[in-house]
Amino acid sequence: MSGPSLSPHAAVAAIAQRARGGKVFLSAGPAEPLALHDAWRADPESAADLTFAGLFIPGINRFDYASLHPRARMQLFMLSPDWRGGFTEGRSPFRPQHYSQCYATLVREGAEVGVFHVSPPDERGRCSFGLCADAPPAMMARVGWKLAVVNRAMPAPRGTPRVDLAAFDAIVEVDCPLAMLDSPTPAGAEAIAARVAALVEDGDTVQTGVGKLPIAVTAALAGKRDLRIHSGLLAPAHLALIDAGAVRDAPDAVVGGIAAGDAAFYARMGAEPRLRLAGVPETHGHAALAAIPRLVAINAALEVDLLGQINAEIAGAAQLSGTGGLMDFVRGARASQGGRAIVMVQAETRGASRVVPLLKTPPTIARTDAPIVVTEYGAADLAPLDIDARAEAVIGLAAPAHREALTQAWRDLRKAM
Question: What domains lie within the chain, and their CATH numbers?
């Protein structure tokens, strides 16, 4: 027997009563409970003194929960322009953690209330977590009062964990669109994509991040064969690889934590027999990644310096995003037998070099974790190089107009060491 059926407005009132000024865990990614947003806006007092927590993803989860009320808070592990208001005001604390650590923090701390976005129950009364399996299955045991948002539009992929509808204390039944991911057009990234594709071999297991460069690389892999995909976030570009015949035709050939795209993508992924969605310990855990042979992690960053340090999250003094799963995958791929960790950096932007003498920001990737760095001008595996050879290799990745200045900068830096 499931709990009572509530309207969205009754649900947010019940959340406020049950949480009592504490924490509310929300499914995120494509499973963000959009159906409750209007109810919170209509009754902002129901959000007062609440902290909204989840693995919110920039570009998918656009709602700033801290904006609901002057005393509402939003717990952040990454940043986005959509959430900057609460962050700037100090009501949305940001924790700089790897994605695996973000998950561990959520599970360790738990919440007074959990809101879970699920599919309608099957004939056995079991609901699928749909397109989001990263944290919700584990959080079922770490929250007090449990609310299910049962959405007819939520697919039930074969390989996604399920839960008994009777496990929830109340339900909200809706039929509404899911949160979607805007995929940028990868114009101007062909040179980098081609260099990265040359480092990927048939039979590899590939992880790609999100953004213009990773999308361009994914498209460039269409000619490969027998690939497996293992990513935190699965996107339309991965489906295009399946359609191109690049992905192994076998169960569990495509593994991810969440799958985000548009409505057509959701319909396809809901019926994809190769897909399996899993929790963060499998998608980002070091032991799990290290056990995958020939794991190739492909991600993008903002800057690289002559020591091999990489910045992927700060522009000037502005925190643009967060570490996310970058370091989880870099370290996992380097520990994988035959694995490779690749980070792409555009050599320059508007004439300014993104290959710099020394980072002015805290590095996202320390020099001790230096991966293969790829720009339009080449690729260099920095890990086995001493500091002088590394600086020379990084200078070779810069746009030609900046190499002389970088060479002089290294001479000055080297003398100061």
Answer: 8-174 (3.40.1080.10), 190-416 (3.40.1080.20)
Distance between CA atoms of residues 235 and 254, nearest Å: 11
Q: DSSP 3-state assignment of 401?
A: helix
pTM of the model: 0.95
CA angle, 277 as apex, 53 and 4 as ends, to 5°? 55
Q: Each residue's pLDDT tens digit in the chain (417 positions)?
A: 568 999 999 999 999 999 999 999 999 999 999 999 999 999 999 999 999 999 999 999 999 999 999 999 999 999 999 999 999 999 999 999 999 999 999 999 999 999 999 999 999 999 999 999 999 999 999 999 999 999 999 999 988 999 999 999 999 999 999 999 977 666 678 999 999 999 999 999 999 988 889 989 999 999 999 999 999 999 999 999 999 999 999 999 999 999 999 999 999 999 999 999 999 999 999 999 999 999 999 999 999 999 999 999 998 878 888 899 999 999 999 999 999 999 999 999 999 999 999 999 999 999 999 999 999 999 999 999 999 999 999 999 999 999 999 999 999 999 999
Residue linked to tokens 């800057």 = 303
Alpha-carbon gap, residue 76 to 320, rounded angstroms: 12
